[in-house]
Design brief:
This protein is of the alpha+beta class. The chain has a domain of 102 residues: 2-Layer Sandwich (Pantoate--beta-alanine Ligase, Chain: A,domain 2), CATH 3.30.1300. Strands 1-2-3 form a 3-stranded antiparallel β-sheet. Helix 1 runs antiparallel to helix 2.
Length: 155
């Protein structure tokens, strides 16, 4: 019992072919210009180029969706801050309050589309367009209301 033991019940293929190659075959191109690899040469490059293109497309799509989400959050924040600014200036009059709201919204790269003061409460609407291709989905809009928790003279 020298050497490695043979596993019991193990047999070799009867035709002496392993992976489609016969003993004595060389891996040199055949005389007709083909090879043992057939037409598969370069297919990994094509597959990897396709995967890279899909990955780049997904990254660009993700960036566009991210830009739209950031724009939506920015517009909501601008509306909240504009409503607070307008409510804080309500005692100075509607024109002064809405001008202050517009000032705040413009600093946040958005547009004030509506501003009203009703009693002591300020109502504002703000819009902005997302960057890039996300703008095709439309503008982001938000509205907000701000004012005192209790209105003087009402219970």
């Amino acid at each position: 019992m020298s050497g490695t033991p043979e596993p019991s019940g193990a047999t070799l293929p009867s035709d002496d072919r392993v992976f489609g190659v016969e003993p004595g075959d060389s891996l040199r191109p055949a005389e007709d210009g083909g090879s043992l690899l057939g037409d598969e040469r370069g297919s990994a490059t094509v597959v990897m180029a396709g995967l890279a293109a899909v990955l780049m497309l997904l990254i660009v799509l993700g960036l566009q969706v991210g830009g739209a989400v950031v724009t939506r959050h920015r517009v909501a924040s601008a509306a909240d801050l504009a409503a607070l600014a307008a409510a804080g200036q309500a005692v100075a009059g509607v024109d002064r309050a809405c001008e202050r709201a517009r000032w705040v919204v413009e600093r946040m790269s958005a547009t004030l589309t509506a501003c009203r003061i009703v009693e002591w409460e300020a109502y504002v609407e703000v819009t902005a367009r997302p960057p890039g291709w996300a703008a095709l989905s439309g503008a982001a809009n938000a509205h907000a209301r701000a004012g005192p928790a209790e209105v003087p003279g009402r219970r």
